[in-house]
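thought: user wants a sequence for this fold. calling inverse folding tool.
action: design(structure=
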C-alpha cells in the first residue's frame, strides 16, 4: 500500500506515537507515513512525551512501559477510527 506524501490534515498535530508489536493492516512504514501526513511524530521509544502507543500482536516491553507511565494504548481499529475522522 502506497500513500501520497502530501499533508492531509493536522489531526495528530502535537502528538507522538510509538509503534509496537506486529501490525496486521499496515507496515510500520505505512503507519508512520499516515501519522506524519497528519502532522504527528513517531518515536522509537516510550517516554512521558508519548501520546499514544499503537499496539499490534505480540507487543512487549513498549506496551508494558506505556502502562506504567499511564499512556493510552490503542489498537489498529482505534487508529483506523482516528484517521477516518481526519
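)
observation: tool returned 86 residues.
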Amino acid at each position: 500500500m502506497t500513500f501520497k506524501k502530501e499533508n492531509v490534515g493536522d489531526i495528530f498535530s502535537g502528538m507522538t506515537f510509538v509503534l509496537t508489536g506486529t501490525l496486521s493492516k499496515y507496515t510500520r512504514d505505512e503507519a508512520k507515513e499516515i501519522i506524519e501526513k497528519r502532522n504527528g511524530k513517531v518515536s522509537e521509544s516510550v517516554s512521558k512525551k508519548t501520546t499514544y502507543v499503537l499496539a499490534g500482536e505480540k507487543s512487549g516491553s513498549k506496551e508494558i512501559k506505556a502502562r506504567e507511565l499511564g499512556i493510552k494504548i490503542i489498537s489498529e481499529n482505534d487508529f483506523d477510527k482516528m484517521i477516518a475522522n481526519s
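thought: summarizing for user.
answer: Here is the designed sequence. The beta strands are 16-20, 41-43, 52-55, 72-74.
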